[in-house]
């Protein structure tokens, strides 16, 4: 059975890591959502050069490993581990979020835009009043997936001494030579974050479906 | 709606139980394989090959040569010489690349037979594995950029020291310099790059490895001499006394024949 003394003996380390993982995840979550929305808008506005710029950003960022983005900020720009990891995580996740939001907006039937425009609404008004509210509902489940991935991906901080949950797990396991039990407790701490997040997204999805 | 929440709760409890069960199962599995592979020496003789766990990121000891794809270094040559003594042929070896973090689990799983990977003999590790006699005498030291204000270990107060995860030096430095902040990285390459990127003021590990780094980038130097003794040992799975004896015999043989000194002179230039 699980050796709970591992948890109780190193509780301060686990909690310190948990705190950092929560902080990094929350900051990256908000930042990636903001950047993601911005990029999605850039990809959709009726102006070709901007579209291309947005597409280039998404294709470049989402097709390289997260670790390399982290190293860029850590070794290249010389930010500390926590900062480099959080910024890299925000940028990396934002490319996926931008794609999810763009797909959501595009999945609103074309007729909606045409009808709104021909009834006299401007492009921005149509987006704000007709398209985005409908897209929002469609986008919730994929966004939820991205946020869960983000929390798990935050373990990349451990590579640049970001003091997060995984880093603390590495230290505890190298001190005690216990591998499985140490990381099972790490997994449980991650579940404490991801399961409520999952449930929250599911709840929001249900609520919005009802309002249809 | 209430029902859904209950479902979610039950699901998460189930997940936790599953995970816990997972740990239990694996530990019995290792116990089982421990019984099966009790005598590693007999296995080595049977397959006529020794599987060594070696570093691939440690200059002078075990470093992957990118042009050949082969790992080269002091540990590698020692391992070959040992295989030459035990099996009569230096080529009857297989090298698996390990890190400080993975070498013990790999040994205990039976993926490797012997660890020759800059591993310090400590009391704590002796509880987990069996060690041979010392095959290399190292000591922990500090690597800093030339002209740094750090001249000895006492100067570390309030500074950031870089170490490698799972190494004894990470534990030692916390004792010897309690006022320093310690950041730990995955391997020596990352640690050295972090030092170069100014993420810390000094890098600490065994002098033998630091010499390799200073050799690579002469703008860095060792300071303060050594402040610990780090006797490197060759490790085998706990309980394999016959294999330890065989390795000790082989080690003595290559020391007597001058082969050891030859390998030492080839790699270590102080």
From TrEMBL, chain A:
**What subcellular compartments does it reside in?**
Cell membrane
Note the InterPro entries from the entry.
AA_ABC_transptr_permease_3TM, ArtM/GltK/GlnP/TcyL/YhdX-like, MetI-like, MetI-like_sf
Which ranges carry the ABC transmembrane type-1 domain?
18-201
Residue ranges annotated as transmembrane are 20-42, 54-75, 182-204
Question: Which membrane topology term applies here?
Answer: Multi-pass membrane protein
The GO cellular component terms are: ATP-binding cassette (ABC) transporter complex
- Give any GO molecular function from the UniProt entry: transmembrane transporter activity
Keywords in alphabetical order, please: Amino-acid transport, Cell membrane, Membrane, Transmembrane, Transmembrane helix, Transport
Q: Indicate whether Cell membrane appears among the record's keywords.
A: yes
UniProt cross-references to Pfam families, sorted A to Z? BPD_transp_1 (PF00528)
Keyword Membrane recorded: yes
Which PROSITE patterns does the entry link to?
ABC_TM1
* Family listed: Belongs to the binding-protein-dependent transport system permease family.
- The molecule here is called Amino acid ABC transporter permease
Automatic annotation (TrEMBL), chain B:
Q: Which residues form the signal peptide?
A: 1-20
> Which ranges carry the Ionotropic glutamate receptor C-terminal domain?
49-270
- Keyword Ligase listed: no
UniProt xrefs under PROSITE patterns = PROKAR_LIPOPROTEIN
Its protein name is Amino acid ABC transporter substrate-binding protein
Q: Does the keyword Lipoprotein apply?
A: yes
A Gene Ontology biological process term? amino acid transport
What Pfam families does the annotation carry? SBP_bac_3
Q: Write out the GO MF terms.
A: ligand-gated monoatomic ion channel activity
InterPro entries per the UniProt record, alphabetical: Bact_solute-bind_prot3, Iontro_rcpt_C, Solute-binding_3/MltF_N
Protein family according to the UniProt entry: Belongs to the bacterial solute-binding protein 3 family.
Q: Which GO terms describe its cellular component?
A: extracellular region; membrane; outer membrane-bounded periplasmic space
| PANTHER family, per the entry | ABC TRANSPORTER GLUTAMINE-BINDING PROTEIN GLNH, AMINO ACID ABC TRANSPORTER PERMEASE
Per UniProt, the keywords (alphabetical) are: Lipoprotein, Palmitate, Signal, Transport
- The record places domain Solute-binding protein family 3/N-terminal at 49-270
């Amino acid at each position: 059975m699980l050796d709970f003394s591992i948890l109780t003996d190193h509780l301060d380390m686990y909690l310190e890591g948990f705190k950092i993982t929560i902080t990094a995840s929350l900051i990256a979550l908000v930042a990636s959502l903001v950047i993601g929305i911005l990029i999605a808008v850039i990809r959709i506005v009726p102006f070709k050069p901007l579209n291309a710029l947005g597409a280039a950003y998404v294709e470049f960022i989402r097709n390289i490993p997260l670790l390399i983005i982290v190293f860029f900020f850590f070794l290249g720009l010389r930010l500390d581990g926590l900062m480099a990891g959080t910024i890299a995580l925000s940028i990396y996740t934002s490319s996926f979020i931008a794609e999810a939001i763009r797909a959501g907006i595009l999945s609103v039937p074309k007729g909606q835009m045409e009808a709104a425009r021909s009834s006299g609404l401007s492009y921005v008004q149509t987006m704000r009043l007709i398209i985005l509210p409908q897209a929002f509902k469609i986008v919730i489940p994929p966004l939820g997936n991205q946020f869960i991935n983000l929390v798990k991906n935050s373990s990349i901080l451990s590579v640049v001494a970001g003091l997060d949950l995984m880093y603390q797990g590495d230290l505890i396991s190298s001190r005690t030579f216990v591998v499985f039990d140490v990381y099972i407790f790490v997994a449980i701490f991650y579940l404490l974050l991801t399961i409520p997040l999952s449930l929250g997204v599911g709840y929001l999805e249900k609520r919005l479906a009802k309002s249809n | 709606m209430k029902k859904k929440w209950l479902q979610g709760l039950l699901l998460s409890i189930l997940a936790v139980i599953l995970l816990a069960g997972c740990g239990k199962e694996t530990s019995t599995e290792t116990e089982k394989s421990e019984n099966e592979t009790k005598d590693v020496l007999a296995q080595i003789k049977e397959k006529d090959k020794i599987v060594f766990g070696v570093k691939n990121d440690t200059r002078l000891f075990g470093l992957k040569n990118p042009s050949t794809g082969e790992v080269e270094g002091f540990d590698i040559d020692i391992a070959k010489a040992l295989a030459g003594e035990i099996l009569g042929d230096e080529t009857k070896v297989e090298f698996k690349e390990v890190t400080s973090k993975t070498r013990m689990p790999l040994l205990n799983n039976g993926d490797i037979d012997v660890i020759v990977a800059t591993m310090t003999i400590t009391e704590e590790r002796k509880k987990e594995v069996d060690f041979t006699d010392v095959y290399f005498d190292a000591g922990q030291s500090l690597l800093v950029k030339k002209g740094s204000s750090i001249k000895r270990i006492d100067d570390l107060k309030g500074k950031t020291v870089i170490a490698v995860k799972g190494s004894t030096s990470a534990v030692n430095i916390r004792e010897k310099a309690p006022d320093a902040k310690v950041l730990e990285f995955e391997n020596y390459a990352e640690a050295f790059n972090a030092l170069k990127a100014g993420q810390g003021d000094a890098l600490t590990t065994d002098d033998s490895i630091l010499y390799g780094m200073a050799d690579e980038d002469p703008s860095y130097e060792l300071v303060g001499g050594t402040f610990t003794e780090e006797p490197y040992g060759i490790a085998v799975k706990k309980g394999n006394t016959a294999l330890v004896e065989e390795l000790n015999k082989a080690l003595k043989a290559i020391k007597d024949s001058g082969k050891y000194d030859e390998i030492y002179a080839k790699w270590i230039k102080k």
